[in-house]
Amino acid sequence: MKLLSRIFINPSSQVYLRQLQKELNVSSNTVRIELNKLTNMKLIQVIDESDGKVKKYTANVLHPLYLNLRDIVFKYIGVDHLVEDVFFKLGNLREVYLTGDFSEGKDALFIDLVVVGDIDRLYFNTLIEKAELLLKKKIRTAFYKTDEFSPKLLSDIISVNIFKADKDL
């Protein structure tokens, strides 16, 4: 699951064998075997670097199971609880982005979020406290009103949009 999390949370991320070995604290052979299995199933794809020395792996977003696997990974790390138990209850919420280590599929002590919308922060904090107990993680949040936010603000950091309102607010 840690390997799947590392690859499937952020579809633009690229990882290589030695990097995964260090991050997951397992042997390179273990990582190689799993990467080969996922490649053979066409769930991930290999990107050969021009020098031919390093193979990078990325999620195959065109695979029919990609969205299902990504949903499973979100359930594994608990993002589904945030969406179901917090975001849907806030009303004027526009978007939520996952940033920090979790946006790269890495395990971390904190879940970092960028929240866009005009919401009641006291109520939000109450919901987040409950979510923290469920997830056993601390949640750090940056708030932006809808008119203050532009996706350009996140252009220099890795982020994953995990919630978007269905209609204009």
Give a short overview.
39% of the residues lie in helices and 24% in strands.
Largest sheet entry = 4 strands, mixed
User: How many domains would you count in the coordinates?
Assistant: 2
Number of helices: 7
CATH architectural category of the largest domain: 2-Layer Sandwich
- According to DSSP, the number of beta strands is 7
Shape: elongated
Range of strand content: 15-25%
Strand sequence of the main sheet, in spatial order?
Answer: 6-5-4-7
| Terminal Cα span | 36 Å
Give the % helix: 25-40%
Q: What is the CATH topology descriptor of the largest domain?
A: Beta Polymerase, domain 2
Mean pLDDT: 84
**What class, by secondary structure content?**
alpha+beta
CATH class of the largest domain: Alpha Beta
Structural commentary:
- By secondary structure, the chain is α+β, with helices and mostly antiparallel strands.
- The chain has 2 domains: about 1-70, Arc Repressor Mutant, subunit A (Orthogonal Bundle), CATH 1.10.10; about 80-165, Beta Polymerase, domain 2 (2-Layer Sandwich), CATH 3.30.460.10.
- The protein has helices at about 1-10, 15-25, 30-40, 65-75, 80-85, 100-105, 120-135, and strands at about 15, 45-50, 55-60, 95-100, 110-115, 140-145, 160-165.
- The strands form 2 sheets. It has a 4-stranded mixed β-sheet.
- A hairpin with a 6-residue loop joins strand 2 and strand 3.
- The chain is elongated and about 50 Å long.
- It starts with a helix and ends in a 5-residue tail after the last strand.
- The mean pLDDT is about 85.
